[in-house]
Design goal:
Elements (H helix, E strand, L loop, with lengths): L24 H65 L2 H13 L3 H19 L1
Helix pairs in contact: 2-3
Length: 127
């Protein structure tokens, strides 16, 4: 009896914990509980991953919308600046007088004269 339970573990209850090919019920219970926990946590983990993916996609689309709006505002501001610059570069009194004469006359020679005046004014403003 002195040799039972001790030695190299190739028999009896000693050494490596084997029971002649059977596994302890406590071990199987522990493994089963771990597997059940993993299976129980899986739906929650899947939904949390889904929620994170959706929230990231929504935040990215909001960021893209803001960037697009900023770029659109820059284009509109540049267009407005160019339009105002064009308005300031044209002599409005001369254009108004030429437009008034054009509306009041039907003869081709008057229209040709007005066209010559407008072209001359454009040439002086460009230079």
């Amino acid at each position: 009896m002195a040799g039972e339970g001790s030695g190299n573990g190739n028999g009896g209850n000693g050494g490596n914990g084997s029971n002649g090919g059977t596994v302890s019920p406590q071990i199987t219970d522990a493994v089963t509980q771990a597997n059940v926990k993993v299976l129980g946590d899986s739906p929650a983990m899947a939904l949390s991953n889904l929620y994170q993916t959706i929230s990231q996609s929504l935040s990215l689309s909001a960021q893209n919308a803001v960037t697009s709006q900023q770029q659109s505002n820059i284009v509109h501001q540049a267009t407005t600046t160019q339009g105002v610059s064009l308005l300031y570069s044209v002599d409005t009194a001369a254009v108004g007088a030429a437009s008034g004469k054009t509306l009041r006359s039907d003869t081709p020679d008057v229209l040709a004269n007005i066209l010559g005046v407008v072209q001359a004014l454009k040439g002086t403003n460009a230079g």
